[in-house]
Every structure is written in structure tokens, then in C-alpha cells.
Amino acid sequence: MSEKLSIPIRPRRNRKSQGIRGLVRETVLTPADLILPLFIHEGDDDQAIESMPGCTRWSLDGLVREVAEAEALGIKAFVPFPAISDAGKTPLAEECFNPEGLVPRAIRAIKENVPGISVITDVALDPYNSDGHDGIVERDEKTGELRILNDETIAVLCKQSLCHAEAGADVVAPSDMMDGRVGEIRKALDSQNFSDVLIMSYTAKYASAYYGPFRGALESAPKEGDKKTYQMDPANGREALREADLDAAEGADILMVKPAGPYLDIVARLREAMDLPIAAYQVSGEYLMIKAAARDGWIDEEKTVMESLIGIKRAGADMILTYFAKDMAKRLG
Ligand code: PBG
Predict the structure, then answer these.
(1) How buried is 84 (Cβ within 10 angstroms: 0-12 exposed, 13-18 middle, 19+ buried)?
(2) What is the mean pLDDT of the chain?
(3) Which of 1, 109, 180, 288 has the fewest CB atoms nearer than 10 Å to its CB?
């Protein structure tokens, strides 16, 4: 049509000033889109984390202060990740459902002191498991190979979820990738009158090298083997839709894609295919690539972070977990 009328089409008109660009902007990021992951430990001190410059392993007092600041900046949710001492790690990861454990105490401290923010808890065994895997490990006596036991692990994840719900968690987020865990956790929660606790499922969690710095922060790397028999193959896209269908059928409230930046196509495909809200996790490796390049003066940190988050939201994420949440909330505020 435009050819027939021979009107020159000039898309640049819609970019001509800040005001016009604001009018036609399709994607807007707000602090309420951001979820802040925070590391916690048993000590009274707040420790800088060597493998993740700019992040801190908080004491419970430090956590309360940090969460209060985040809440004041408009952030609506955070996730505590516990660093458990070697003494607390066992093959069956029993510490993960100890009602006096680090995570339940952190939840209670936040609920008492910063009631305005939602607590999302990571549900998986790796911080508590002496093998460093997300599930219970068994060694095949003949081949010597490790197996991650699916259903035995789910029984423990249900206890862990209940423990978090009892302490006051608003959302439990299973990050373990066992088959069928969302449905079993839903049943367990409902049976104990926690039908209002949400499940944010790590639906498409890929076996990714980008998690390296996080495992350094928690000293939670697998002692042997890798996570490829439960986390997804980075080469697969359709499989994410299969996982999403299953999680939705099992009662998940929010579906997550992780990592975010290298998997924007998966975010977009899930957004298209599913009605449920979609979360995306900008993981530790994505964080560090920006931090390292900015530290050396090679890129502008603030602008690059903003662009990376806008890209994730544009692809279809309703909410983004990012270690930059507080910095960005300050900037957006
Ligand atoms: C644990 C868990 C991991 C991350 C979040 N939850 C590590 C893993 O699966 O090995 C990674 C987060 C990040 O890299 O920022 N199940």
C-alpha cells in the first residue's frame, strides 16, 4: 500500500525525541518486576563473596537491613539462599527441613521486621547435601556411576517446602528439576492448610556453566559428576514446553526459565504457549560477565544491566530474578 501511494516511510520519526520515544516505548521496567536473590550464613558478620564481587553473605541482622532497604526501593520479593557449613551437610540433607534451620529463621526474621515483602524460598537439596547435588545420590554398585533418586528426593522436597511454609514463606520455588515434584509439593502444602502458598517452578532450568559463581558463593558444587541427568540440555527448546505443560498440570502458579539472557527464545516460547506468569532468572554468571567487563572499564555497567533486563522483559518475562535488583530499583525509583 505505501508503495502505491509512494509516501516515504520514516520509522525514525518515532525516535525523534525523548518524549516521543517514551510514548511509543513497548516495554517498561519497574522495581516491582524485580526479585532480589540474597545469600545468608550462620555468622554474625556480613561477608563479601569472593566469587561474586558486589554480593554479600549476610548475617540475619544484615539480611533484615538489606531487605528493608530493597522494600523501600519498591522491590516486592526476595529469595534467601543459605550457605550451610560442612557440619550441616549430610547425604540425606536433613538440615533442609529443620524448623530451626537458617532459612526458616531468616523467613521469621523478615516476616517480623519487613512484612511488606514476599519471601520466595529455593527448594532443592544442594546447599544441604554432602554430595552437592539437588537430589539424593546413590552409587550404582556395578558401574560406579552416580544416580540421583527422583521419588526419594521429592519426599524430602515436600518436607522442605512444608518447613518453609510453616515459617511463613509466601512462595516455594523448587529448583531441583525432579519429575513430578510440583504436584507432590502442591498436595503436601494443601494437606497442611497451606493452599495459599504459591509454587514458582523452575520449569526450564538448564544444565548451565553460568551457575559457577553461585556454587562458589555457597560452596555447593557437586563433589562428583554434573547435573545433566536432571537439569535440561542447553540444546533443547521443545522440551521446555513439555516441562511447562507438566508443571501447569501439576498446579504451578509461576513458571521460570533459567538462565535468562542466553535463553530468551525459551522465555518467548513459554510466554506464547502458556497463560501462567513467567519468571526469568538472570543468574550469577550473567551478573559477573557484566560486572567484570564494567570493572575493567570495557562497558557501562548501569546501561548494560538496564538493557539486559529490558531484553528479558521484552522476550516475555513478567518478573526477573537478578542480583542487580537493588541497583536497578534505585535507578528506576
Ligand atoms: C540450586 C540453585 C542453583 C542456582 C539457583 N538455585 C545452582 C544450581 O542449580 O547448580 C543458580 C543461581 C545462579 O547461578 O545465580 N538448586
Answers:
(1) buried
(2) 96
(3) 1
Residue with cell 554430595: 131
Mutate to test the pocket of ligand 1, among 208, 211, 312 (most ligand atoms within 8 A of CB): 211
pLDDT at 216 exceeding the cut of 90: no
Give, in degrees to the nearest 5, the angle at Cα 193 between 191 and 196: 115
Please say if the pLDDT value at position 36 is more than 70: yes
Q: What type of residue sits at position 178?
A: M
d(CA 263, CA 206): 9
Catalytic residue among 4, 16, 228, 258: 258
| pLDDT at 217 > cutoff 60 | yes
* Predicted model pTM: 0.96
Cα(216)–Cα(211) distance, integer angstroms: 9
Does residue 288 sit in helix, strand or coil?
A: helix
Identify which has the larger pLDDT, 24 or 144.
24
Instruction: Return d(Cα 312, Cα 131) in angstroms, integer.
Output: 33
Q: Which three cell numbers stand for residue 243?
A: 516441562
If one counts every other C-beta atom within 10 angstroms of the C-beta of residue 166, the result is: 16
Q: Which atom of ligand 1 is nearest to the CA of 287?
A: 15
What lies within 8 Å, CB to CB, of 72 at 6+ separation is none
Residue 1, pLDDT above cutoff 60: no
The DSSP output letter for 86 is: G
Determine the topology of domain 27-332 in CATH.
TIM Barrel (3.20.20)
Question: For this structure, is 76 an active site residue?
Answer: no
Q: Residue 205 catalytic? A: yes
Q: List pLDDT tens digits, range 116-152.
A: 999 999 999 999 999 999 999 999 889 988 999 999 9
Q: Looking at this protein, which amino acid is placed at residue 129?
A: N
Q: Which of 205, 227, 313, 326 is catalytic?
A: 205
